Structure formats: C-alpha cells, structure tokens
Amino acid sequence: MSALHVAVLNTFKSQGWVYQEVAGREVVESGFDAFHGRVLAHVQSFAEANFVTVVANASVVVPANCRTRVAELLMRANKDLLLGAFEMEWDTGQVMFRQGNVFSQQHYDQSLMAGLIHNAVGEMDRLTPFLGEVCRTRMEMLPLLDLPALLKREDLLPPAPEG
Q1: Residue 3 contacts residue 47 (beta carbons within 8 Å)
Q2: Beta carbons of 69 and 145 less than 8 angstroms apart
Q3: Mean pLDDT score of the chain, rounded to an integer?
Q4: Which pTM value belongs to this model?
Q5: Helix, strand and coil percent figures for the chain, each rounded to 5
Q6: Contacts (Cβ under 8 Å, ≥6 apart) of 133
Q7: Whether residue 117 has pLDDT greater than 70
C-alpha cells in the first residue's frame, strides 16, 4: 500500500467517515448523506503520479430519453466550475462529478484531501435537483425546457454550510 493511499485512509479516519476499501486496488468508497440524498464517492490513489481522484456519483440515473438534455445541462454547469467537471456515462445514464489533485511527493495534505471529497459530494448534491427536474419533464416538453433558467433557480440549491 502506497504512502499516498495511507494518507487517504487516514483522512477518512480523521474525519470519522465510514468507508470500504476495494480489494486489490488503492480505492476507497463511501456514501455521504447530503441535503438532496445519498452521494456515493469513489476515491482512488495513483501513487506513481502522486495523484488522487475523487468521483461523486448521482443517485439519479438518467433515462435514455433525457440524456441529450442532461448532457447539455452538465455542459452548462461545467462552464461555471473552477475545479472538477460533471460527466455522464452515456450508455448507463450515470452522472458523476470528477476532480483530482497532484500532491508533492511525500507531502499528502489531509485537509486538502478532505476538501476534495467535500467539494465533490457538495457539487453532486448541488446538481441533483436540477437533474431531477430534467428527468421529470415530460418527453414532449423536454425540447422547450430552458436549461439556463433552470440552472439559475436558487430554490433548488442546498443551504450554504454553516461556518
């Protein structure tokens, strides 16, 4: 097990997060209860590159008939992001938020790792109600759905974290 992956495990332990290790890989998986539902996170260490990637998965699976509009929604949401990006596995409709960080060798900042995980979970939680709105739109109304206006709806956003 690499020192980088040990740092990831220590981050989960220090935060008190429940997690599972994936056998044979430097991967940790965990479920987080967010404002809009459960967000599953996948954290992978790439020791040879000193790189950690965090992928947060949406609880909403996008039906085939909505995928084109959801792809546009994700593209529009990505435009305003500074770190990370939303993606969709086209064949399954799984939406995810992915981001990563390269660490300096042997300096694995656990607060930065925790921040990456918090951010990925938070971004997915922020997007979840927008995904739901698109997926609940009747098929004949999907082409008329104003995605820029939808993304401006503050009533769908989770409350700002305290502190």
Answers
A1: yes
A2: yes
A3: 94
A4: 0.91
A5: 45, 30, 25
A6: 150, 156
A7: yes
- 30, 104, 117 from 108: Cα distances, Å: 20, 7, 14
Q: What are φ and ψ of residue 51, in 5° steps? A: -125, 135
Q: Is 100 exposed, middle or buried (CB count within 10 Å of its CB: 0-12, 13-18, 19+)?
A: middle
How do residues 30-44 score in pLDDT, each as one tens digit?
999 998 889 999 999
Q: Where are the beta strands (DSSP E) in the chain?
A: 20-21, 27-34, 37-46, 51-61, 85-89, 94-102
Instruction: Report the number of secondary-structure helices (H) and strands (E) in the chain.
Output: 4, 6
- How far apart CA 42 and CA 159 sit, in angstroms, is 24
Distance CA 25, CA 49 (A): 15
